[in-house]
Each structure stands twice: as C-alpha cells, then as structure tokens.
Protein 1
Amino acid sequence: MTTTSLPDWVFPPPGGFTAKDLDNIPDLPAHTELIDGSLVFVSPQASFHARIIDLLAMGLRQAMPDTLRVRREMSVVLGTDQRPEPDLTVIKAEAACDDDETYYLAGDVVLIIEVVSPESRSRDRHRKPQLYAGAGIQHFWRVEKDSGRPTIYVYELDPATRAYGLTGIHHDSLKLSVPFELTIDLTEIDRL
C-alpha cells in the first residue's frame, strides 16, 4: 500500500489528534482510542474478554445504586489529547442523558474497568491507569486472565498523590464495599 492510497486520517496533524477529532474522522475503525494524541486501534476481542465484560456488567447493574449507570466500550475524555475507551465504565446517572453521546467526561466517571488483552497489556497495566488517576477517577479495576479464569486487581485513588493504590486481588469472588456494596461470583464465567 502506498502513502497515496492511505486515508488522510492516518497522518496526524501537527501536535497530534485531539479528543474532538475522534467524532469527525470519516471511516475511522470502531473502538479507536486516543492516547497521547495518537490513534490506537484495537484487535478483535477474544471470548474470555467478552464473557468477563458480560459477567461484570450484569453484577454491577444488580448491585449499583440508582444514581449510577454502567456502560460498555464508551470513550472517556481525560484531556485534550486523551480519549481512551475502557471496557466498562460506571458513570453518574445524570451523565447518561443523551442517546447520541459518544463519550463521557472524566468528572462523571466513578469506576473504570479494563480487561487486559495480549496486544493491550502495556497500555492497560501502565499508561491507562496513569491517565485515569491523573484525571481524578476514584476507582479502577484491571482484569487479567489466569488459567482461564479472571483475576481482578482493585485500585483506589490516593488524592494526595493522584496515583492508584492496590486495595485487593480477587480470584473466585469479588466482594467490595466501595464504590458500593458488591458481590460477584467470578466462577460464573464458566457458565457464560
């Protein structure tokens, strides 16, 4: 493929792309993220990835208060050149008022969940948590596949350092009291 046959959006503008650009680039592949002003394309999801998202979304919806909503694969604007797309996002209910919305603002986010894939390992373990913490998002969960089962690493924001501190590692059951009371049987992934 020659550079003349590539779409114009392949070439970033001076200074990189902005969060606003994602809604205006024609024919952009679905689920494209913006990290540090660069477009990031995601690989197709594996079965484990889809099943753990389903399991967690169901568990969250059953447990969370009426003041919150859970959304799958919706981008979050963290800054001018940052618009990642977490696997799951828990937002304030008032932020979920427009069926045409394509993103949420960091100030409306209560919890972000990333399921680590082989191609996104470095971003999901390092860069994205830095960005989420820097934007002041209080809760972050990272899900890893371990012998076919999920392991969930739960983090809470330290407001003094604006960095996440690990509060627990969960294997067969996820039982938490923050950001709300929650119990999810992680072994149920085998039934999905």
Protein 2
Amino acid sequence: MFEAVELGRELDKADFKAAEPALRTRLLQAQWALQREGVPLVIILAGAEAAGRAKVADRLDKWLDTRGMTTAAFWDETDEERQRPAHWRFWRRLPGRGEIALFFDGWYRRPLQGGTLGELEGADLERALHRNADLERTLAAEGTLVVKFWLHLTAEQQSRRLAKRRKKEQKASQAARRARRHAATALEAEPEAHYAALRETAEQTIRATDTGESPWYLIEAGDGRHRDLTLGQTLAAAMESTIEARAEQGAAGPAPVPHPAPEPAGKAPSLLDSVDLGERLAEADYREQLKARQRELHELAWAAWDAGRSLVAVFEGWDAAGKGSAIRRVIAAMDARLHRVISVAAPTDEEAAHHHLWRFWRQIPRDGYATLYDRSWYGRVLVERVEGFAAEADWRRAYAEINRFEEQLVEHGTVVAKFWLHISDEEQLRRFREREETPWKQHKITDEDWRNRERRDDYRRAVEEMVARTSTREAPWTLIPAEDKKVARIRVLDTLIQALKQALAD
C-alpha cells in the first residue's frame, strides 16, 4: 500500500513559493463555501512519528481562516473521559455547521497504538475500526465532511528526523523539553522500534476504514514542502467536490428513500394493544410498596456509584402519561449528588448546528452517576418524524444510529433503561380536561398537547416502529401500563432495581 508514497518526491523552495498563493486562495474560497452551505469539516492527521503533523497543522492555521476552527491532540485521557464511552471525547469536540475541527489521530489514536503495541488484537481491533467507520458514516449522513490524511515516512526517513529532533532537544533547556513533550506512550517513546508494527497496523486500519464517505489520503512526508502542498491541494479538492455534490443534489432534489412496509389490513392487534391497562393498586399497598422500593433503589444507587456503574434512564410516553411523576419517585430514592434529570426540548441553535445525537453524547453521565431523560434522542423518530421536522431519510437512518449509540453506552458498562408509559385515548382526554380545570395544573396543558392528540394515530404508528426497531438485547424497551399512575411508578422502580441488581452481579 505505502509503496506509492515512497518515491522520494521533493519540491524546491522557489516552486513552493510560486504555488502557495494560488493554493491559499483556493482553500479560503472552499472554506467560505462550506461555511455558506453549513458543512462541518473534520480533518484527521495521522501518520508515523516525526512525519510533521504539527507542522502541517501550523501551515493550515496560516492558510485557512482560523475563526470557527479548532485543533485537538487527544493525547492523555482525563479521568472525565475515561469514565465515559471512548467516543465521548470526540463527539463533544465535533464542529458545528460551517466550522472546522483538526484532530491529531482523532478516533484512530487508540486502534493505531493498541494494534501496534499488541494491546488490541484480532476481533477487538476489528471492532474498534468498525466502530470508527460507523461514526464516519453517521457524520457523513448528516453532512459532515471527514477528510483523513496518513503522513508517511520510510523507516530511514523517520530515523533521520528523530536523530535531528534528539539533537535539538539536547540543546534545549529542561523546562522547554518538558513543555514540548506530553506523557508519551511506548510507541511515541520508541517509534523506531515499533515502525514495522505501526506500518502493518496502519495498513489494516486504512483498508478497513477507507470508504466513499470518508476516504484516506496517503501523503508522502519525506519532504516538508511537498507534503504540505500536496496535502493542501488534496484538502481543497475534497472541499470543492463536496460543494459541487451538494449543488447537484440540490438541483436534483432529495435522494429517494425506501417506502415503508404496507400496514396490515383490518384491525390487527398491535404492540401497544398488548399492554394491560386494567391493573390497579390500592393506596395503602402503593404506599407500602413505594417505601420498600425506594429504600432498595437508594442502596443500589450507592452500590452502583461504588462499583463505577452509571445509569441512563429514558422516559418516553403519551402526553399526560405521568413521566414527570414517575421520575420524581425515582430521584426521591437517590441521593441528590448522584443523579441529574434532563428535560429535553427543541434543540438550541448550537445543538441544531450539530448531528442530532451530539447534545446527548455531551450529557452522558460519568461512571457511578445516573442521568434521567424526560424525553430523549427518540424525538428524532417520534415528534420530528410525525411533525415533519426531520426528512424521512433522516429519521429512518436514526434507528441504526440510536442503536449504535446505546450499544456503546452498554459496552462501557452503563445500565440503560428505556420506558414507554402507555395510557388509553380516553384516559389521556380525562387527564387533559382535569389539567385545564385545576388551577395548579393548568401550566401542564398547552395548545401543542391538543395538537399532538389530534395526531395520536400517527404517533402510535411511530411508537410501534420505534419499539420494534430499537428494543435490543443490550437496551430493551419496557412498556409501562400507566392508566393507574401508582402501578406505573412501582413498575418503573422494579425495572430499575432489577437492572441495577443484574449489572452489579455481572
């Protein structure tokens, strides 16, 4: 693979200076076009040690408009990062629409280093690479341009550069050396010893993740001027082709999406019909059970904190189904220092400028803590689908994106519990009218609630498909009968207790 960039190409200073002004103009024009179109750009710089990634980054800072442009090295993981799924640290640094993020290695740092040092092998390495390719497809599907560069050096070229670097460091003061170097891994500390293994891992990585949405570009890095000019020209071409593709797509209209499967004829029983809404619980029994369940959940929440097991609980359901009251009974059982409740509303301007999962990735709890969501990322396949806020292609794609998101939470050790609180059409109407007639409840009923009720059949179909497509072994849905709020609260507490018990027993 790398033979094509081991040709010893060089560029003299005069030729570089002659070509640089036109390239800078081209890059700036392409960058401004991406800004106008609202296209986020992620540039990944990977490569052999001493290949010049820092110099390339400095060059791009000079050539591009640095407003709306950030750079991240992802050297040492913080405690905060280690206590969340691996991709959390990348999601929170993703650029908004029209912005640029320059990542040193990015999400390839761990697979490259782990594969080279033997810390990731076989299926584990393949899984990490597959997850990276999934992430890039997810970003590309909502318009992010991901451009990946591998800066290549031969073993001989690397040895010469490292010798020069060591000579300079010997002359530098101790303080300057400390400031320059971070806590190096074994690969960074002894790159020459691991050159062959890195080359093999890099080839496997590139082959596994070189896709049409986000291809790899191999850059010969033996000569700095040739490296920088080639990379700049390649980046400009990638930006320009993206703008051209968007223009063509706009002229042709949106791409077609698969038609949904035909609905069964007649009044066939549905998934929600299987929820038994007839169960009732006497007040005295409810009080006794509530006290016992909350005491048990309190102990389990502290046990989870001690074991470093986080909890994500998602509450979805019909308007007036009792999501808020169920959440209050849950948090009443937990120490206030251990939990956080997030009520999800329409995205802010900043959130709307990113992928729809970005705002939820940022809110993932640290190990040992709990986050409860009143509404959640399922808004993409519920309200955004029904109300037309998301294109059909977008909400259909979201099922797989959500499943992968939750899979990463569970793989990290997070307990994921998802509840749909179900009530009948008649009970919802009764509760709506009660809210209108009760002064201290009137704030709970809005015109939007009534509009949503008029589309209950559409929402029901969306709920049925949501549960069918996203109830996985790792993160199953629990359908809660909420006709009697007391029953619903006890069922929610029981589910959380069992989920935490099982997690702590593993």
Protein 3
Amino acid sequence: MTLLKRMWKWLTASSSRAARKGHPDLYPLNVAALAQELNLVDEGRRLGEAGIPESDAKTLTGPEAAVVQKVEKARQDYIDWAVIRLNIHNRDLGRRRLTRETVDQALQAHKMFNRTADALLTGRESLVRRLRDSAVNQLAELAAFQARHSLARDARTPRHKLLTWGLLIFLIVVEGVLNASFFAQGVSTGLIGGFFYAVVPAGINVVVTFFSGKHLVCYIRRNQVRWKIAGVVSLLATLVFMTTMGLGIAHLRDSLTADAVEPAAAALQAMKDSPLRLRDIFSWLLFAVSVLGGGLALADGMTSDDPYPGYGPIYRRAQQAVDIHEDEIAALRADLERKKDDQLEVLDRIIAESRANVAALASLIDDKAATALRLSNALQDADNALDALLSLFRTANQLHRNGTPRPTCFDIRPKLRPVKVPDFDTTADKALLDEDRYTLKTLLGEIQGIRACIQEAFNQRFDVFEPLDAHFPRKERV
C-alpha cells in the first residue's frame, strides 16, 4: 500500500509540475509544502543531534542539496516559460506591424478606382454611344415630324392592346347578341342558332371598320390636303362598307324568314335587285344595329392612338430609344457606384485594420514588458524560497546540536546554477511602434483627399455620358 501511495503521489506531482511550467509565476514555490515534502525540520533535528554537519564542513547536506535542486528546477522552468512567451510576443509583434504594401494600397486607392472604372467604361462605352446615337436620331426624326406637321404637344398615350382587343370583342359580342334576336325568327335552332348566324358578319363588320378608322380614316386629321382627301375617301368607303354590310345582314334575315332554299344566294340577289327593300321593321332594326356597331368600331379605331396619324408611333419610337439609352446609363452609373463603394470599403477596412494593428502593437509591447517583470518577480520569489527553506533546516539543526559548534557553512548562501535570462528589451519595438503611429497619422491625414479623388474620378467618368432628359423629359414618358 505504501508503494502504491508513493507512485500515486509521484504521478500527481509530475502532472502538476508539467501544468505549472507554462505559468511559473502563477504557481510560486510553496515553502510550507516543500518543507513538508523534504521533511526539513525533522531532518535538521536528526542531523543536528548527530552533529552533522561538522562545524568546519564546506559541502551542503543532503536536505540542503535537495532544496537547491528544487529551486534550480523551478528557476529553469521559469526561464523556459519566459523563452516561450518571448517567442510568442515577437511573433505577434511581427504580425501586427503595418506593412508598406497595406499603406500603399490605401494611398493608391483612387488610382485603383481609376483603373477599375476605365476597364468598366471601355467595355460599355461603345454600347452607350450606339444607343445615344440611336436616341438622337429618333429625337431628330420626331422633331422634324413635329415641325412638318406643326405639333407642339406630346403624343397621347395609346390604349393598352389588351383593352383595345377587349373592346373589339365586346362590340362583336354585343352586335352578335342583338342580331341574334332578329335572326332567331328565321332559323330552327332559335336564339342560339341566330347568334352563331349573326356573330360572323358582326365580327367582319367590326374588325374592318375598326382597322379602317385606325389606319385610313384617321388621315382626315392630317394638315396636308392630299392626306385629308385620302382620309375623306377612306371615310366614304368605310361608310359604304358599313351600309352594304348592314343591308346584306338584313337581306340575309329576310331570306331566312322566307325559308329560302339558299338564303345567302337569295340575299345577294335581293341586294342586286332592290337593296333598300326589306320585308319588315325588324330587318331595318337589324340594319341599324349593324351600322351602329360599325360606327362604334370606326370611332374606337380612330381614338385607339394619338388622333394625329403617325404621331403616336414615331413619338413612342423616340421615347423607347431614349429610355433604353438612359436605362443603360443608369445601369452604368450603378456599376460605377458599386465599384466606388467597393474601393471606399477597402479603404475603410485598411484604416480600421491599421488602427487596430497600432493599438494591438502597443498592447503587445506592454505585455512583453509585463512578462519581463513577471519573470523577474518569479526568480526573486525563488531566491526568497531558497532562503526560507534553508533557514528552516539550519535553524532546526542548530537547535538540536547539543552544544556542538554551529557550522560556518550555515552562514553562506549556496550559489545557484546561473540561468540565461531572455532579452525582453522593448526599445526596438517602441521605435517600430512610433514609426507605425507616424505612418498611420500620415495616412489619416491624406484619407479625405483620397476619398475626394475617388469621388472626383467617379464624377468625371460618369459626366462623359450626358443624359437626354433635357430633350425628352422623363416625366412625360409612360
């Protein structure tokens, strides 16, 4: 059991010493524990009663040698720890120094932005120029059209295509439903059959009159006489078409109500023989509904775009060209601003890191000096522990010598093995710190100028591309 206890004590003591090696000053020599471990008082009494050491002895006794060994071991552990800490400090100090490359990167930030912006513009300038030329040409064409036709206003916004086609379908359905009630009297399938009989001619009537009003009759509003004549002729032709379609639909109803074998052929023959002769009032109402539907479609076509023929399309082409050009400019500006913000962000990051490095460098120098002080205190504590432990042994020995003279060697402090104390001098480190502080101060003094150069370079690059808002105000666009 005693052997097991000693082994357990040795294992735990070894682990403790290993853990303490990294932080010797946090675990100073415990005089009381060492005195008990080395049994200094009992050994001093036992050897004193035996007259050991002799009064003229020159060498240390066993307990004294054990004390010296313990203290020397602790002092060497302190030195080992100090060497490790010094290497760590020197490594961290080297990492925290401001590098010339970092400072140069900040000082040259505006030049870096210039190169980045030039590279961006080189790849986009030809496209922007081409879009600008297209927009200028379209604006010139629009201006010439306005001057030629004495137009000083903006073109009216056309109806959406969905709404236009919706109105057409609505007119066809309404006319078909109204006509179906008249056709229902002449077909065996009633109202449903009448609707299908009426919707085809109603659709032809509405579609033809709509496109005539949109593309032909509208020229009646042109300033030039020849175009007005063309518009009038188109109007007359459209009216003739509407009247003919109305009479044809009405005669078709008459043929259906008369149970003709071939209603379409009979209606055509009746149109040739007596176009204005209809069987009853309902056929005349059918004629009126057809003419009204065609008239509404004609008015719808004439009002679906700007009232002045040709002005809406040319105005929209110019508008689209200017929008595309200025959208590209806006995208280019956004890209330039992103490049500018990225460069300013890099600049801010360098400044923040430089400040942090200088502050950390100062803190590391303080830590290095504090480590030197901690080492000095630890070595001094070891010397004090040596004196205290030797005093315990020698006092007990002297008290139990039974009149034997006190050894002269008790008046001599044993010499410890010299240790090489690491150099914790911070003079060179402080000189580097002063240099970094000066570099940072210089950089901070120039930072506003660098920012201004980046902003000026941004403005110069972007001002090359003049927007066309002065020629075509965006507030008028759709």
Protein 4
Amino acid sequence: MKVGLFIPCYIDQFYPQVGIATLQLLEKLGCEVGYPSGQTCCGQPMANSGFEHLTDGCNHLFTDHFKDYDYIVGPSGSCVLHIKDHLHVADNEKAATHIRQHIYELSEFLTDVLQVKQLTARFPHRVGIHQACHGQRGLHLSQMTELVGQPFSKPQQLLNMVNGLELVELSRADECCGFGGTFCVFEEAVSVKMGKDRVEDHIQHGAEYITSNDVSCLMHMEGILRRQNSPVKVLHIAEILNHG
C-alpha cells in the first residue's frame, strides 16, 4: 500500500526524531512510504482559536499533497483528528473526502489497517501511557473510564508487544495533561497545575518513561519534568515501537 507520511509542523521543528521513527517503523512493516516535502501546518491552531475561515490555504495545500495516497498516517492524534473532522475543499471535495476517510493516527493504523500482531522492538523499562484527549475522545483509540464498556487501548495493545517493557498502572488512566493547544497559553496556571498532577501520577507509580501518541502532550509534560529535575523521560510511542 502507498502511505503518505504526515508530519505535523511542531514535530518537524522540535521533535524530528519522532517523524524518523514513524517512517522507519512503517517501512519495517512493509509499507511504501512517501513524504510530500511541501507539506506545512494542517491549520489546527487557527481553527482552535476560532479562525477556521482562514484555513483554506492549508486545506488546499494538504489536499494537493496527499490526494494520491491510499492512506495518510501521522504521529499526532490531534492533527489527524483535525483533518478527519475539518478538511473541506470546495473545488476538490472528492479528494478531501478521500483524505478524511483514509487518514489515520499511527497506532490506529497499525492496529486497524495493518493489524499488527507482533513486533521486534525491545525496551526494558517501566513505562506509563498518557492517553491524549484528542486520540481517546475524538479518534476513540481507547475506552474512556467514565463509560461502562469493555476496556481497550490501541496504544497499550501495541506496547504489550514490546519485549522487556513493563506498563505501570496509573491512578487516573485518562486524565488530561492540561496542554490543550492554546489553552496552555491563555490559562497558563491551570494548565501547569494539570500537567504537574499528570506527571506526579506517573512518578508515584515508578514510571521511567511517559509515552503518548501526541507529542504536544509530551512536550508539555517534558517541560514540567525538566523544571523539577526529574529523571523521568518522555518518548513518543513510535520511538518505543521502533526501538531495538
């Protein structure tokens, strides 16, 4: 299958190793991966701030670059959800619809499309999963604890395949970290307090690493960990699944 690699702008600028790990992992699993070098921001920051009417340029550019791929895969639940819910192009809606119906967050693509049953990765560490809100509540990558239903987690399903990895059980499995995009700017104090609480849950349960499928959440928690001089590190799930 022909897969278009969608790397959000903040990953490209600050965490390029996540994009590289995503590419390597997909290729290990037999995908033919293309990276449209002209891709830019998907438009989520503008839409989240109430300016979705200014995202036409982003929508056209995204559609032009990804319209010919069988699937589009990105290592960011929030950016993928934005495209899935909001990509519309008046003069090329057929292509936009194809993209909306074939774009996947990485762990979702691995479990639902490739149906991965085993991995060669090895990561002998205690790891806590941060269930990012967009992935959990928008893309339904895991069950919300307030609902009565069979628990599931696509990221956890994949991490359970990693040799030597020990998942730690948290007190609040799906609590928000407080990042929330522009929320962390306009409500800084609340955002920081939420982040400290989220980090503390992992620390109290002995996590050496915090992982997630959204780098924005990890970036927020990494800043808190560094200011606390904590030895706990953050890693995107792609980096762990591609490790070893």
